[in-house]
Amino acid sequence: MIQLYCGRKGSGKTKSLIKLANEKVSKRKGNLVYFDDDDKMSYELDRNIRFISTDEFGLKNYDEFYGFLCGAIAEDYDIEEMFIDGLLKITSSTINECEELLKRIQWISDKFEIKMHINISIRIDEIPEYLNSYSVEFKK
User: What are 88-101's pLDDT values in tens digits?
Assistant: First the structure.
């Protein structure tokens, strides 16, 4: 399952995602992993959540990020949920370039039964039609 959280920059998506991740810690049976493009918010997360700053790995596009996600899953079969903060920034992509990536993330989510929570900075009038196939929450 993919849950998308969309909104313009500064709308509170990151704070909401961190809050959600922290709330999941006490209810989890498996591991939680949080991806961000930098480590600015790492101290806001519960210490039981695996935090990964993608800028430490020099990821340049969505193919590299997808491989990185697969590697994280291969390394830890107990991952229950993943939180991806700023998908477009992490992948240096536009929303239109991410359609294939989201299909691939959906596939690994289904195959390994991992819930994916993904923040995307985008205005409501920029949301492409293909995103309607996912559960989308918009932050104003």
Answer: 999 999 998 999 99
Strand partners, 53: 36
Contacts of 101 (CB under 8 A, 6+ apart): 62, 65, 66, 87, 91, 93
Rounded-to-integer distance, Cα 92 and Cα 135, Å? 23
Residue type, 3: Q
Per residue, what are the HEC states of 2-47?
A: EEEEEECCCCCHHHHHHHHHHHHHHHCCCEEEEEECCCCCHHHCCC
Q: Which helix (H) or strand (E) holds 81?
A: strand 79-85
Q: Can you give the pTM of this predicted structure?
A: 0.93
| Structure token pair of residue 137 | 């929450």
All domains of the chain, ordered by start, with CATH? 2-139 (3.40.50.300)
